Amino acid sequence: MIIVMEHNATKEQLQRVTDFIANKGMKSYIHQGDLLNVVAVIGDEINLNAESIAALEGVANVKKIQEPYKLVSRVAHPEDTVIEFSNGVKVGGLEKPVLMVGPCSVEKDYEGLLKVAKAAKEMGCQFLRGGAFKPRTSPYDFQGLEEKGLQYLAKAGRETGLLVVSEVMDTMDISLLCQYVDVLQVGARNMQNFKLLKALGRIKKPVMIKRGPAATIKELLLAAEYVVSNGNPNVILCERGVKGFDSQFSRNVLDIAAVPIIRKISHLPIIVDPSHGTGKRYLIEPMGKAALVAGAHGLMYEIHHDPDNAMCDGAQSLNLDQFKEVTKSLNKLIGRIDYDNKNNK
Amino acid sequence: MIIVMEHNATKEQLQRVTDFIANKGMKSYIHQGDLLNVVAVIGDEINLNAESIAALEGVANVKKIQEPYKLVSRVAHPEDTVIEFSNGVKVGGLEKPVLMVGPCSVEKDYEGLLKVAKAAKEMGCQFLRGGAFKPRTSPYDFQGLEEKGLQYLAKAGRETGLLVVSEVMDTMDISLLCQYVDVLQVGARNMQNFKLLKALGRIKKPVMIKRGPAATIKELLLAAEYVVSNGNPNVILCERGVKGFDSQFSRNVLDIAAVPIIRKISHLPIIVDPSHGTGKRYLIEPMGKAALVAGAHGLMYEIHHDPDNAMCDGAQSLNLDQFKEVTKSLNKLIGRIDYDNKNNK
Amino acid sequence: MIIVMEHNATKEQLQRVTDFIANKGMKSYIHQGDLLNVVAVIGDEINLNAESIAALEGVANVKKIQEPYKLVSRVAHPEDTVIEFSNGVKVGGLEKPVLMVGPCSVEKDYEGLLKVAKAAKEMGCQFLRGGAFKPRTSPYDFQGLEEKGLQYLAKAGRETGLLVVSEVMDTMDISLLCQYVDVLQVGARNMQNFKLLKALGRIKKPVMIKRGPAATIKELLLAAEYVVSNGNPNVILCERGVKGFDSQFSRNVLDIAAVPIIRKISHLPIIVDPSHGTGKRYLIEPMGKAALVAGAHGLMYEIHHDPDNAMCDGAQSLNLDQFKEVTKSLNKLIGRIDYDNKNNK
Amino acid sequence: MIIVMEHNATKEQLQRVTDFIANKGMKSYIHQGDLLNVVAVIGDEINLNAESIAALEGVANVKKIQEPYKLVSRVAHPEDTVIEFSNGVKVGGLEKPVLMVGPCSVEKDYEGLLKVAKAAKEMGCQFLRGGAFKPRTSPYDFQGLEEKGLQYLAKAGRETGLLVVSEVMDTMDISLLCQYVDVLQVGARNMQNFKLLKALGRIKKPVMIKRGPAATIKELLLAAEYVVSNGNPNVILCERGVKGFDSQFSRNVLDIAAVPIIRKISHLPIIVDPSHGTGKRYLIEPMGKAALVAGAHGLMYEIHHDPDNAMCDGAQSLNLDQFKEVTKSLNKLIGRIDYDNKNNK
Fold it and tell me: Which residues are CB-neighbours of D158 under 8 A, at least 6 positions away?
């Protein structure tokens, strides 16, 4: 930790800072500059409260040296986390990138969902996604089928051999979700619902955390740290676009650079959702490819057997024909990446 | 609703759009432009799914005319909502702006909290705030006293005659909070926790919703609409800063303009939190004053009897002496605003 | 300067960093942490290229301690800069806040401009503003009257005794502007036109720099540093809103906190433009008041004798009746602030 | 154009709006909704001033249907613009993506620049880039070699057969640049320097416009429209990252989606600069690949023969060995894209 003093801080204020650090059992060194004094704290700063120091009189600002996350960082855990499912599918590291597809929300028409699942299986996808509890910005929009939706998903998963992903919105629903799904998704708007994250740390099923629309990469990693530090190491991260100043052509800014950045600083798998990231059907293919060549461990995108009559997000969903065409193109790229990865192993 | 067709949309695609609208029992008119065709839908569009229409082939974009919120809008409810508490304190409309103060989190030292409450009462504040369940970005930070914290708050409130505000983080905790507090606060990170918002619509106690760090004003109003449409009209909004690109000198960008904007389009009370909005102690006074002259119905800011040893947010908390000085200055302004309001009533 | 090494940096890489610093004639100290090594550089770092150091192998990141601006900082120049004009008007420090008003662009109708100027004088404003060279986002919008516009402005200024402000868009136009105006304004879109800033450093007339829509406070101060370091100390800063993610109700986010922040770290005057900052006529009064109580040295806002037929920005311009009403309310507040300032001097 | 009236607008206000439109020689239709009235204007709205209408009493907001750019839009010009250089190199459409590389700034050491140029040629790059006039945020940073830098660039270009790109910062320098370079670059900070854009419309050499750090895609296209509407159709666009709220790991957010979006709505070539877009050397390769698969017509990135001693942007420059390795990987991908494009022609 580096503590920069105000240019007009007094000797007494400086003394108070070094005393404060000494009282916490840590060492500090003072560097006297021409204009400013700087105090360097040596040692593991994770338990030293930067806010308390910043609150001391005469302190201009406090710069942390160490990152506040530990378990999800490559510093402490250099090998990639690879999550393996009961059917042998693996996510992370140098494994073949996976595809997670399905409708925004599970609807009453089970046959429609089954059509989607069969097309997904046919195209080599590994996961069926679908919302049973829907977080909708407006209270007047469709709110989801709840348990019935989970049953449908699980059934379509069993019939096709696909793994199933669905969102959990409340701590009370965790055990219900665990009965039906293979991956519990934390939605972007719940990324900092810390009660939920802690509770998910106490289960064993993999958790996929979507980056919040205004969350920094550090905040995303800290959300994962909540789950891991509470006992569940099986976390997948998901980039799905952040809020930007230009939403005329794309709902969010899909931050592709988050993929190589997270692969450098963390060992967790990171996938990308180009459907929510852009809100436009025609951007799924180019942005999906961009994510894959940048190193994404998988993609999640929306398909619907009848997008014109979808209960939500129709404009960003592919219909089955579009889905097959886009996925064919993505699979070609995935094949090449997998080939290169195997040669790099 | 206005539907703009692609410049190369076919006649059949246009027909399909107007059929779709007719099937929903609504009327539409086609305006043929030189370059583009535009379809105007007439009538109450709140139940017409814009996404389904945007998903139709040949549609370039869909512009909604009506706002998606109803109950919180001045269009349907022109008079200000004024929330009245059992002790006669009123929030909203042309009532005297209120002050909500207290520590970021309630800590073990009850005497410290009581000192804060007494100082608050002495300076004419109406509410004591304090976190019992703390949403912390890092799992290694202090997580709050939970029920014991609520007991302390309620006790300090009773001893001083202050109303009590505290954050609810989970639907499971709502009934617990209701036993101890006068206002249940929804934190910025939970602003779109829709399960929580719905559940808060089923209680009668006032709910204060903090604007999320990347939430638009429309999204904030829709969050309030969740509570109101589920049966609880007692909602207070709170601006507390949004994420910006420059966090060197201020943690967030305090969006003061949200105050006059919300007062124009909604009847709900809107208060401002300059502590979280800036993260700097020295900015509480100027930004608090700015919020008040812009029309805020109240301010919420952080004070601590011993900020150097606070468990959270010390750097943005005022100590008791600073608190008295700042509040004296704010009270002078509040007095003038109250005088002007009374003459305008 | 603090140099944080990668956690797996080698001894040789560390040596290379300290050698690099020694070669520049500066001293450094190495702090060995449990996880990371940190190198502290002591002395005036303004001439040490952080980028070169960040480029060395094994360096994780470089944190500058000193701010990169010198002349505009309070560290080196603690007293407020107060700019005094030939007619005795003063801007900055604890002087009475000033008002700069006028149309977005000067138009062909001189009588209209004169009406505006007379109303401005009558209401106690000190400056007449108007664009002669208009930076318009679209090439199809009105581009300004150029020299004729400057002549009109100067004439209206002379007839009413108002000082005149207009925007300079190109180094080639500086000498022309100097013949007609009292303050040369650098527009937000030109804030980092460094050729222009340098050239403005070589004149003596005051320069007003508007903050760019994505400029940090540091970048704004560095733009001012360009002018001051080239010889012209007469710089006024202007906050006019930054780009945000929500432009539904307000074109930009007016960053009121920039006022008290800049007053703390710099000695230069800072004014606020609530017209461009919001784009809405009804927000000029509340946001103007907010800026004043937060410490702004003045306001700039747009008025037009016939906004319905304005060539630009009609929607954010006040007509003459609205102008008088708003300005009456602002003057009341200015009177109180001036009274308080005089008692604080 | 769609004009939405306030919910409480009067009949007279509505009449005034339709009269205003009729006076401009255009037709309008009124749609009476349950809550709001809407006026639709039919015809080419490009010359109708939305601001004047928005300024009328009773108008809630104005939604433009037509985009404000014409010449750069695919609506009016469906075929791709392909810019061909004297040596046969082509940029745009389905041509093979190009590589533009070189140092951030041209420095005194000509031999160093030549080394870079030779390596670029060897790796199949088409353009040598380098700054002679440097726009630096701080006045204390290196400001460029000016004409000598241009001479060096041109000489290195001739010796290797590379085309040359350099930035123009001021209208006064255009003719000088034209003597030495093949493409005149407009820097991100000058993207809305409209005097410069207009002047560049009067030359014939290709102009490359970099997207400003807070510029929307519409604003970028309007900047290009300035050049094209003044007579120069040879414009290349360049995405180089926009300001975001998280700059801890990447200086800007590289908006890869801008590539497929711009290719859909405009016929102009669009390239990507992953060096400035991220500020990190290790991100050039993954982000360069992402840009290429998303459809970029080329990449621009920084290399330096001795990054540790570069005068600017060392941390984001590749040294010659890194350059060769990265470019080998990019060339492999370019080869595949070129193969696919040829089969799609």
Answer: none
